[in-house]
Design goal:
The complex is a heterotrimer of chains A (530), B (288) and C (314). Chain B contains twelve helices and no strands. Chain B is mainly α and 288 residues long. In chain C, helix 6 packs across helix 8 and helix 8 packs across helix 10. Chain C has a domain of 212 residues: MetI-like fold, CATH 1.10.3720. The longest helix of chain C has 38 residues. Classes of the chains: A alpha+beta (530), B mainly alpha (288), C mainly alpha (314).
């Protein structure tokens, strides 16, 4: 028999006495007095002692949607487990400089047409099999398979030849120079090539990462235990990690407030206010801009085929109010897609369009319109509805009367993929947080070849291809990035509104949590302080 | 059913002349209170355009203003919309929905019940039909219907009506079964009255009693279904307010801005309380 | 009575058949499909086409229907399209959690409903009746999703005596499981308990006003005996019908309550499966619910007949 409230130490205030009395009475009523309390069962810490890193403990992570094994190789809303089970070749820092993970060092050929990777030799998969260059070759070929729906497939497809030099050195030959190869290395998880079909069904996920998946209960969560043979010595600190699916935002907030979960990245902005002043929680916004809320425009529907009309829309929306009221103030109001950490970020780009209803009306007038009536599709989820309502009001002030079309996510997805969006829609996009060229070759809304806006321009295609295939640094790279930004802003087929980074809510005693650029959760160095 | 019968425990003044039980019910203290409550809510809805100083969809930068803010007596919501206007127009929208959907459901339910009373085979068929409707989780049905029809008032009305059909149908059917076996019905049958006549003249009026209670209950259930659908994002098309949508928008702010939820909660309570008081009063009088 | 059950079997099978057609058709009418849902937001048409083919979505509708029914008859429900795992496993996991929740809620409904009904009809003190009325009105007037959030705020956030949500199986740790169960079950039960309470109250009041009861009172029979032996039994039959229907409401209402309390039951599963267009899971699940419901109705009817001897089945 354990104590009823082990989480509440010696000092018994009147309030906690009342609580205990209330709780005791309640439990007594059900014949449970003296039994374990479910409230204090979660988030057990390691051994007691001073501050600083320590071994042991379990961290419970609240996620709002379950892991989808079939999307294991695609960027989806839930990729947090990827870096627990698996590793990637390299890992970016905040300035997009790659650092070693499974690859220890690399050399580009002078012409940029091949790269030599040296790999760690002390890495084994969870089943004990050693990691070799063949696993990297498999990982690349796997992403080239269209069925994997990997957003970075175009980059993987550039790798056309593999020269093995022993088990731990590999030369990748490229069809042409690309500047986002390390985006691929940040994105591509190294999975066991023998069990990939099982991995896609979620029955066996065998990786080299710091934690082993012990159980996946579809719809309710994932359980991980420490990988004792992890290649990083004496890591991880934690014994176990639990992912709990809590789909409803308010339930997610409650779970964090009560200490049932110690970590989440998926509290909607407007629910964050309640957590701001919580003594046991810290809120850490990431600047990486993993997602951005945008207003999409179907450029084949008159009068939106007129660029002036699209620009009017871009002036009509009040990004600052949207950010403050619908997104809880977490994010960056911006007309361009780039977060502050992106090499393409410029303040002039960010403020290219600011709230100016008079100008919007003027532009519409110059295009021959005083009133427009258009539909706007949005996801039928509370946060998305608030964004749509806000946009609707702003557009109305400029004479654009919008009818909202709340749509369930599956239908919206189908419309998105099959290019059947109505005149306007609002959603979010990713991929602006890495090499700018990746946005234009990998993020569907911006894809030069085929996008939902049905926007085509020879100029855009030329600039994107040129930016993608030239070196990532230097004056030319800067000029090309600027050209992409200019086209995006000028053509306004995707009107960016607010760049949202991940917002991490963690228990105060949880330290050392990081995310990579694709929101893979890295708990290598995470620990629970006493 | 005679005026001379002893009165129930509470003891009211004895009636001198037989009055229509509905009028008597509405004249009782209970009935009057209920009537006043419902009338207040209905008036608020009907007069929304006159009473609201703002449009329910006009936004401002002043979000979550507290009670008593100049110009916004009930404060504002997260998007800076006037909560009084949203409450009034939301009430109006809800009334429009429940006034349409509940009678529709009741009518269909009763028709099915009457159909069932005709022949045992039909009875079985109708019973199974009710089972079928009841077996589908209502909100899953709501998600499917809205996905097919698109958002708006129509799917909400249809879902509520559909959900109410078995409630009314089964109640009436159960009532008919019981009343049919009572002495007076048997007597009437033995006395040579036709089956239809016994049903419509004798059984129905008596079996209909529980339906009166059910109407009140259903009206409140309808308010909830509307709210639950809003909560799941398949309610009336935003930004039009309903009591349910305002309430579900207020949920993230329950602890920080409780006044956001208070308006619709009080209105729903008044409506539900009023309806149930009227139902009780009616029930008492009918039973005499 | 056995004859009665036998007589109803063909119609029960018929309803299952009709239900399976309705479910199948409704799902195909809902826009969006599992392939796009599976493919992810950035998949190209060739990816979607490949998935469609793998899932057999290009087959004709009758052949898809037969494939489903064939699987059901041979006991092989097949894999889930979108959620992952086997449809049968998902459903049996969810079913366990939902049965726990619904059973607990049903207990609350019966206990609270009877208390509300009996007290509301017979309590001598006016304030007790007023309190019962206030409680039932409150339970009916506040939507369950608000009750749920308020319960969590009170018991989990402020008092910290119960967990805000989640689920522990009754089989693995019953003492913890009960604590996880209390709030969602109460939240789910309250409106139905209030409805049942009102019905019982009406029924008891009506029965107490009947001639034979008045005669008995005049003859000096103890009021309590009258209540328990006469009034309550007379009020029960309609209440049982109602309870049968409320069971349906409980299963249906579980969608919301399970979402609020992160309860991994069938409601959550149904919503998830429908949102992701996981055809096999939605189909199997809804058909299961219809089956359960048909059985519950059969039982309700039998209990009804047993309680009310005035009803004869000829």
């Amino acid at each position: 028999m354990t104590e009823l409230y082990p989480s509440m130490p010696g000092r018994l205030s009147r309030r906690s006495a009342l609580r205990s009395a209330g709780g005791g009475a309640l439990l007594l009523g059900f014949g449970l007095a003296g039994c374990r309390s479910a409230v204090s069962e979660t988030g057990s810490a390691g051994q007691e002692g001073s501050a600083g890193p320590r071994r042991g403990g379990t961290v419970s992570v609240a996620i709002n949607s379950d892991f989808t094994p079939s999307l294991l190789f695609a960027q989806s809303s839930q990729s947090y487990q990827h870096r627990l089970i698996y590793n990637t070749l390299t890992r970016y820092d905040d300035r997009l400089t790659p650092h070693p993970e499974l690859a220890t060092s690399w050399d580009y050929a002078a012409d940029g047409r091949s790269i030599t990777l040296r790999l760690r030799s002390d890495v084994t998969f969870h089943d004990g099999r050693p990691f070799t260059a063949d696993d990297v070759i498999f990982a690349v070929k796997n992403l080239q398979n269209p069925a994997r729906a990997a957003q970075l497939r175009s980059t993987a497809a550039v790798i056309t030849g593999f020269d093995k030099r022993g088990d731990h050195e590999l030369v990748l030959r490229l069809a042409h120079r690309v500047n986002n190869l390390f985006d691929l290395f940040e994105f591509m998880i190294i999975t066991d090539r023998n069990s990939v079909e099982e991995a896609l069904k979620g029955t066996r996920l065998n990786g080299t990462g710091p934690f082993k998946l012990t159980k996946w209960s579809p719809g309710s969560g994932l359980s991980f235990v420490r990988n004792d043979a992890y290649w990083l010595k004496d890591r991880p600190y934690l014994d176990a990690v639990e992912f709990r699916v809590v789909s409803q935002a308010d339930a997610l907030v409650s779970s964090l407030r009560t200490g049932q979960s110690q970590l989440s990245f998926q509290v909607p902005g407007r629910n964050l206010a309640v957590l701001k002043d919580h003594p046991d929680l810290t809120i850490t916004p990431y600047d990486t801009g993993a997602g951005a809320t945008y207003l999409g425009v179907n450029t084949t529907i008159a009068p939106l085929n007129d660029r002036t009309v699209r620009q009017a829309l871009a002036y009509a929306v009040d990004r600052d109010r949207l950010l403050a009221q619908s997104l809880g103030g977490y994010g960056l109001a911006s007309a361009a897609p780039w977060p502050k950490s992106s090499p393409a970020f410029t303040e002039t780009g960010r403020t290219h369009y600011t709230h100016d209803p008079a100008n919007a009306r003027q532009l519409l007038k110059s295009a021959g319109h005083t009133r427009l009536d258009l539909p706007l599709l949005h996801l039928a989820l509370p946060g998305d509805t608030a964004v749509a309502e806000s946009l609707q009001y702003d557009l109305k002030q400029a004479g654009v009367h919008v009818t909202l079309q709340p749509t369930d996510p599956a239908t919206a997805q189908k419309n998105l993929i099959s290019q059947k969006m109505p005149a306007l829609w609002t959603m979010s996009h990713g991929f602006a947080q890495v090499q700018p060229s990746t946005l234009a070759v990998s993020a569907y809304p911006f894809n030069e070849a085929r996008n939902t806006s049905k926007f085509h321009s020879a100029e855009y295609t030329r600039v994107v291809q040129q930016a993608w295939t030239s070196p990532a640094t230097g004056a030319a790279a800067g000029r090309l990035r600027q050209e992409i930004s200019d086209i995006l802003l000028d053509e306004a087929f995707i009107i960016d509104l607010v760049i949202r980074g991940n917002v991490q809510i963690a228990a105060r005693r949880l330290h050392g949590v990081t995310l990579n650029k694709f929101s893979y959760l890295d708990l290598d160095h995470a620990y629970l302080a006493g | 059913m005679t005026a001379t019968a002893p009165l129930p425990a509470t003891g009211k003044r004895p009636r001198t002349a037989p009055r229509h039980p509905y009028r008597a019910a509405l004249a009782s203290a209970r009935g009057r209170t209920g009537l006043v409550l419902v009338a207040l809510v209905v008036l608020a809805g009907l007069l929304a355009p006159l009473l609201a100083g703002h449009s329910p969809t006009d936004q401002s930068s002043q979000s979550l203003a507290p009670l008593g803010t100049p110009g916004h007596p009930l404060g504002t919501d997260d998007l800076g919309r006037d909560l009084l206007a949203r409450l009034l127009y939301g009430t109006r929208a809800d009334l429009g929905i429940i006034v349409l959907s509940v009678p529709l459901g009741a009518l269909l339910g009763c028709l099915f019940a009457l159909l069932a009373a005709v022949h045992p085979v039909l009875d079985t068929a109708v019973q199974r039909l009710f089972d079928l409707v009841l077996a589908f989780p209502g909100l899953i049905l709501a998600l499917a219907v809205t996905a097919i029809l698109g958002p708006g008032r129509l799917p909400v009305v249809l879902v509520i009506a559909l959900a109410e059909i078995p409630a009314f149908g089964r109640l009436l059917r159960g009532g008919i079964l019981v009343e049919r076996e009572r002495e007076y019905a048997t007597a009437a049958r033995v006395g040579g009255s036709s089956r239809i006549r016994v049903l419509t003249r004798h059984i129905l009026p008596n079996a209909a009693d529980p339906l009166v209670v059910q109407i009140a209950v259903s009206l409140t259930v309808a308010v909830f279904v509307e709210g639950a659908m809003s909560f799941l994002g398949v309610g009336v098309r935003p930004p039009q307010p309903t009591l349910g949508s305002v309430l579900s928008q207020s949920v993230p702010y329950l602890s920080d801005a409780p006044h956001f939820a208070a308006g619709p909660l009080i209105t729903v309570t008044a409506l539900v309380l009023g309806l149930s008081l009227i139902a009780e009063a009616l029930n008492r009088e009918i039973r005499r | 009575m056995r004859g009665h059950v036998l007589r109803r079997l063909p119609s029960a099978l018929l309803i299952l058949f009709v239900a399976s057609l309705v479910i199948f058709a409704v799902l195909r009418l809902v826009p969006g499909d599992p392939a796009t849902s599976l493919a992810g937001p950035d998949a190209g048409p060739e990816t979607v086409a490949a998935i469609r083919e793998r899932l057999g979505l290009d087959d004709s509708l009758p052949s898809q229907y037969l494939h489903w029914i064939g699987g059901l008859l041979t006991g092989d429900l097949g894999p889930s399209y979108a959620i992952g795992g086997q449809s049968a496993d998902l459903i049996s996991d969810g079913l366990g959690a939902t049965v726990e929740l619904t059973a607990a809620a049903l207990l609350f409904v019966i206990a609270l409903g009877t208390a509300f009904g009996v007290l509301g009809a017979t309590a001598r003190r006016g304030w007790v009746r007023a309190a019962v009325r206030a409680l039932t009105t409150g339970a009916l007037a506040v939507p369950p999703f608000v009750t749920g959030v308020l319960l969590v705020l009170l018991f989990a956030v402020l008092l910290k005596v119960l967990p805000p949500g989640g689920h522990v199986s009754l089989l693995t740790a019953p003492d913890l499981a009960v604590q996880y169960l209390l709030l969602p079950a109460l939240c789910l039960a309250l409106p139905s308990a209030a409805v049942l309470g009102r019905y019982l109250k009406d029924g008891i009041e009506r029965a107490l006003a009947e001639d034979y009861v008045r005669t008995a009172t005049a003859a000096g029979v103890h009021p309590r005996r009258l209540l328990w032996r006469h009034a309550l039994p007379n009020a029960l039959p309609p209440a049982v019908t109602l309870l049968g229907m409320q069971t349906g409401h409980l299963l249906g209402g579980a969608v919301l309550v399970e979402a609020i309390f992160a309860w991994p039951g069938l409601g959550q599963l149904a919503e998830q499966a429908l949102t992701r267009r996981d055809y096999p899971v939605v189909q199997d699940l809804l058909l299961l619910l219809v089956t359960v419901f048909v059985v519950v109705q059969l039982i309700t009817d039998l209990v009804y007949a047993w309680l009310d001897p005035r009803i004869r089945w000829e």
